[in-house]
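Subject: Sanity check before I submit

Could someone independently write out the structure tokens for this chain? I want to compare against mine line by line before I put it in a report. The sequence has 320 residues.
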Amino acid sequence: MELKKLTIIGPGSLGILFASKIWPKLSSLSLLDHNAERAQDLNREGIRLVVPGQGDIEAFPRVSVEPKEFGPQDVVMVLVKAFQTQDILDSLKGLCGPQTLVVTLQNGIGAGEILETVVPRGNLVLGVTMNGANKQDYRTAVHAGSGQTYLGMFDPRLPVPAALERFALILNQCGFSCTLVTDIYPIIWKKLLVNVGINALTALCCLRNGQLLDYPSLRTIQEQAVEEAYLVMNRLGVDLDMDFKEVRELVRKVCRDTGENISSMLQDRLKKGQTEIEYINGAVVRFGKKVEIKTPINQTLTSLVNFFSSMEWKMDCSLS
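---
Independent answer below. Compare away.
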């Protein structure tokens, strides 16, 4: 059966990125928002993706705050912040039929377990994308970098459904380099290790990714945080086929390759909003307790980010 109906939940930077590139191929694509006024504006003005060196992509998906306006979908992409996952469960129920595939490309670890409370395991897909996007305004995102997208079943023991193969084909046809994998968890942890070493430190110190390497004290904290996460991952039985030195160099390479980038967590702090710390460094702490590995560095980073993003304290953060 051909995939015809696709809804993306969340018109953030990634939501705009994927919607803008998929809409020319699948004009029935729709966007679910939680903000009625913004949804009305997006319906009228459309969305825009700025692709440096290539120009702009304009797209006009249908946008609503009411999932019942769309009905059951073939595929639903969950692209809200990880901490918003619980809030979209009721909306998700309104978009899902017995065969609906639910695909999440959210940061960190933990959102899948929340989605599993309303989505059958055989319909739930976890993903990792190396594509980056920055929100420019309510309807515009800038494609900050291309990369591979990986998709795999929430339960790796389950077979890949034909609908997921068709969805991966659509992503490839729309310019996303998408690969289906048998076990998505090593890839999720690989990205998590990078985020553990970058996001919290950039958010706390108001630094771009590459600037972390300019300070020996921050390189030390970065290495300690990543090592804790690496030990927890190994104890959980996830095998990256990389030793710790290779992982450490990977994190540093990402810092260099994305040197001018503003991490998503720093973007959230600049907006004085909630962060995904509990799904990144906080996830390392939770899993560490589960496998009896101490994670004091990640606990400290989690507590500090939570403090600075709470109502207890609002310290101005500006980039140099």
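---
OP: Matches mine. For the report I'm noting this point. Residues 196 and 281 are 6 Å apart (CA to CA).
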